[in-house]
């Protein structure tokens, strides 16, 4: 048996008389797990790259798969750690923070004033959602610093951006959800335009809307 672990077979392999011993599926899986554990405990990605010269082809494939997996996890972690809060910006930052945001990032900006209670409510809800959806960029800005002579009846205004384009807009109290707006209702609205991946199964305002329709009838 050329794959049998015998000293004579090992000698023949060293002289090239017998072909290299083929690794079994279990041996390969064990090797991959061992390399992953060793990498997690002792090596970073740079050290793995330096050690590649000592690996055979199967080892290199396993390491490359592991490197790509760790790289994707690191990128996702970096992206998720960017935001996690509702940040205030000024007009000078609008292009950089909103229009020129990374293409894979949704941007939700609230144009508001501090003296309108509905604006304060929306800011409160957006702060909650910013923590729940850290991969989404949540911003707020004083409206007059961005748009001159913007009428108060259009507040609050929520704009949703992706790749520098407006994908959704909610202008005024009614479109934003009314003075009794709940955070779940705002989450649903933002999910409908694609900005959030909500875990809500249906519109939280559905029952209220059904009751209002029944009342009108």
From TrEMBL:
<dbReference type="InterPro" id="IPR036249">
    <property type="entry name" value="Thioredoxin-like_sf"/>
</dbReference>
<feature type="domain" description="Phosducin">
    <location>
        <begin position="33"/>
        <end position="196"/>
    </location>
</feature>
<dbReference type="GO" id="GO:0005737">
    <property type="term" value="C:cytoplasm"/>
</dbReference>
<dbReference type="GO" id="GO:0006457">
    <property type="term" value="P:protein folding"/>
</dbReference>
<protein>
    <submittedName>
        <fullName>Phosducin-like 2</fullName>
    </submittedName>
</protein>
<dbReference type="InterPro" id="IPR051498">
    <property type="entry name" value="Phosducin-like_chap/apop_reg"/>
</dbReference>
<dbReference type="Pfam" id="PF02114">
    <property type="entry name" value="Phosducin"/>
</dbReference>
<comment type="similarity">
    <text>Belongs to the phosducin family.</text>
</comment>
<dbReference type="InterPro" id="IPR024253">
    <property type="entry name" value="Phosducin_thioredoxin-like_dom"/>
</dbReference>
């Amino acid at each position: 048996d050329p794959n049998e672990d015998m000293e004579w077979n090992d000698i023949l392999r060293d002289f090239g008389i017998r072909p290299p011993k083929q690794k079994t599926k279990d041996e390969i899986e064990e090797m991959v797990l061992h390399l992953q554990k060793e990498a997690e405990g002792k090596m970073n990605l740079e050290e793995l790259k330096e050690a590649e010269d000592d690996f055979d082809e199967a080892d290199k494939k396993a390491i490359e798969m592991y490197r790509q997996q760790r790289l994707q996890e690191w990128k996702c972690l970096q992206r998720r750690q960017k935001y996690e809060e509702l940040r205030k910006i000024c007009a000078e930052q609008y292009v950089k923070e909103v229009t020129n945001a990374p293409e894979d990032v949704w941007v939700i900006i609230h144009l508001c004033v501090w003296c309108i209670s509905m604006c304060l409510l929306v800011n409160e809800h957006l702060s909650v959602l910013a923590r729940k959806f850290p991969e989404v960029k949540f911003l707020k800005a004083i409206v007059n610093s961005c748009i001159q002579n913007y009428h108060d009846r259009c507040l609050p205004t929520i704009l949703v951006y992706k790749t520098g384009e407006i994908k959704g807009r909610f202008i005024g109290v009614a479109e934003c959800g009314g003075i009794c707006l709940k955070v779940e209702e705002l989450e649903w609205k933002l999910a409908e335009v694609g900005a959030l991946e909500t875990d809500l199964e249906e519109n939280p305002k559905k029952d209220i809307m059904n009751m209002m329709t029944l009342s009108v009838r």
